[in-house]
Write a structure and sequence with these properties.
Radius of gyration: 28 Å
CATH class of the largest domain: Alpha Beta
Shape: globular
Largest sheet: 5 strands, parallel
Strand content: 5-15%
Number of helices: 22
Structural class: alpha/beta
Helix content: 40-55%
Number of domains: 3
CATH superfamily of the largest domain: HUPs
CATH topology of the largest domain: Rossmann fold
Number of strands: 14
Low-confidence stretches: 375-380
Length: 568
């Protein structure tokens, strides 16, 4: 498919001697179609060319030629050079490309680059909280999009299954295990044990020391401690899997911190050999104060490792195993200092430079209620399992009111409810705190997941009235030259560019905004253009465009982790 932006950049570069890549970075999409499809702000060249922007625009307008008619018109407005794409050519390009690729429209061929995405990473024996929901949803979407664009993507679930908290849990279970039904309700029961032993540790230093000793025994391979820890891990994973099944999330690798414990000695030796490991009151640390990053602890004074050590071991293992080009850590912004520290220390591990440079922390904000921050103490924490089932339940009630005779009500409610939660987590800039409000999340109007699904169902309703889906050979491009049809076609043209923007900036909102725009433009098209008309050429042309919209909405939503209902 023609890259119009690239084509314009080449022509401007040819007539200015300015590097083509620089030109391409300056090209903009005007706020309205009346102003063109692309705009080049000539004031970007004013200093280099020592001319006024308006003069540069006028001179370029006279020089630039598109011999094959890809650009139908060039207009000068002030210091801007506005380009209007050839509608007939654009329509033919988009629909031909779609016809060749269908559900793979916008994808790319296989690339020789490996991208690791670490997401979810819940803590064993603890509730799967709302923060873990965000990392799971964001990470899964990024993983899907990288894969769709041809990268060798590997999804990693790095479980929090090690640390001194397990020493506490082991001690608590030793004392009161028979009082709790862990098999029946694992996470809540283990949480009760953990809270109880933690309270006792605050009052009795000897018990706290016993907990520390349990963790030292666990690290040393004590059979009893390992057996208990393995059981805690297994029952927790079974509970987490229920949530992953609801979300439709999968991983290529599930390894906890524990997997890297026998690799931490090597990390310590490498850092010692590099001359960056120092003693600090019996602990082993790397001093990063000259970088403004404080002290990164590698080993505690009691000989235990911490999660920074295990994260460094994981980086080396992943570099050695995958030789990755990027390793994304989808973790809340609260951990920013931790990742800055380990990324800095990773420079001394002797791994390939591309791996060091490919370490990225994909930060996201907190989830808040309209009333403010969630709090366990105030009873305002929403458990993920409860949240997902509540979303489904609320949608079922809406369906009962609006469409009581719906077939497959439960399955459709599940797709709409889960889709609504997923979309809400991905629709804004990730670093912003997210407000979770049921009325907004589940609304069938506005910029929401259910709205996207509603547009999809509308296209399905249109196409169900055709004897068969129209084919490209049945399309008369002249029937799609009106403004609302062209808005849809221009939006479809941008799909691949949008996906590349997602991975360039690790921001899923580019795709959610695209789907909303496509939905709104199709709604305008649908309202302005009756599809099921008597004229066969018009009916087939508009029907085929509806088919393209339906397919791309389904594909884009699936990349986000959202499935389409059959009815709404």
């Amino acid at each position: 498919m023609i890259n119009f932006k690239e084509l314009i950049s080449k022509e401007i570069s040819k007539n200015t001697d300015i590097d083509e890549k620089n030109i391409m970075g300056f090209i903009e999409i005007p706020p309205s179609k009346e102003m063109g499809d692309y705009a080049f702000p000539c004031f970007k060249l004013a200093r280099t060319m020592k001319k006024a922007p308006a003069q540069i625009a006028t001179e370029l307008e006279e020089k630039i030629k598109f011999e094959n008619g890809e650009i139908s018109e060039i207009k000068v407005e002030g210091g801007y050079l506005n380009f209007f794409v050839n509608k007939e050519l654009l329509t033919k390009e988009v629909l031909t490309e779609f016809d060749n690729t269908k559900e793979f429209y916008g994808s790319e061929s296989k690339k020789d680059k490996t991208i690791l995405v670490e997401y979810s990473s819940p803590n064993i024996a603890k509730n799967f909280h709302i923060g873990h929901l965000r990392t799971t949803i964001i990470g899964a979407a990024l993983y899907n999009i990288y894969k769709y664009l041809g990268y060798h993507a590997i999804g990693i679930n790095h479980l929090g299954d090690y640390g001194t908290q397990f020493g506490k849990l082991i001690e608590g279970y030793k004392r009161w295990g028979n009082e709790y039904n862990v098999e029946e309700d694992p996470i809540p029961e283990l949480t009760k044990i953990y809270v109880r032993i933690s309270d006792l540790c605050k009052k009795d230093e000897d018990i706290l020391e016993a907990c520390r000793e349990n963790f030292r025994k666990l690290e040393a391979g004590d059979p009893y401690c390992v057996k208990l820890w393995t059981w805690f891990r297994d029952v927790s994973l079974k509970e987490f899997q229920k949530i992953y099944d609801l979300l439709g999330v999968k991983f290529d690798s599930i390894k906890g911190e524990s997997f890297y414990t026998d690799k931490t000695d090597e990390i310590e030796k490498i850092l010692d050999k590099a001359g960056v490991l120092t003693d600090s009151q019996g602990a082993k640390v790397v001093n990063l104060e000259d970088k403004g990053l404080g002290i990164c602890m590698i080993r505690k004074s009691n000989g235990s490792t911490i999660y920074a050590t295990r994260d460094l071991a994981a980086i080396k293992y992943r570099a050695d195993t995958y030789n990755f080009d990027k390793c994304l850590y989808v973790v809340a912004y609260e951990q920013s200092l931790h990742f800055k520290q380990i990324f800095e220390v990773a420079k001394y591990l002797g791994i390939p430079e591309k791996c060091v440079n490919g370490l990225e922390h994909v930060k996201y904000g907190m989830t808040r209620l309209p009333s403010g921050k969630m709090s366990t103490r105030n009873g305002t924490v929403i458990e993920v399992k409860d949240l997902l089932h509540e979303a489904i339940s609320r949608i079922e009630k809406i369906i009962d009111e609006k469409n009581p005779d719906m077939k497959d009500k439960q399955e459709n409610a599940k797709k709409i409810g889960i889709g609504a939660v997923i979309f809400n987590n991905l629709c804004n800039t990730l670093i912003k705190d997210q407000i979770f409000d049921w009325d907004t999340v589940l609304s069938f109007q506005g910029e929401t997941g259910p709205y996207i699904q509603y547009v999809y169902v509308r296209t399905k309703s249109v196409l169900d009235k055709f004897d068969k889906i129209p084919e490209l050979k049945d399309v008369d491009f002249d029937c799609l030259m009106d403004e609302s049809s062209q808005k849809v076609i221009s939006t479809l043209y941008n799909f691949n560019n949008v996906l590349n923007n997602v991975i360039e900036k690790n921001e899923t909102c580019y795709l959610t905004h695209f789907l909303i725009e496509l939905g709104q433009n199709y709604t305008e098209f649908y309202n302005n253009n009756k599809v099921l008309v008597d004229d066969e050429k018009i009916r087939n042309s508009r029907g085929y465009l509806s088919y393209a919209v339906q397919t791309v909405i389904k594909t884009g939503a699936k990349l986000l982790g959202i499935n389409m209902p059959t009815e709404m």
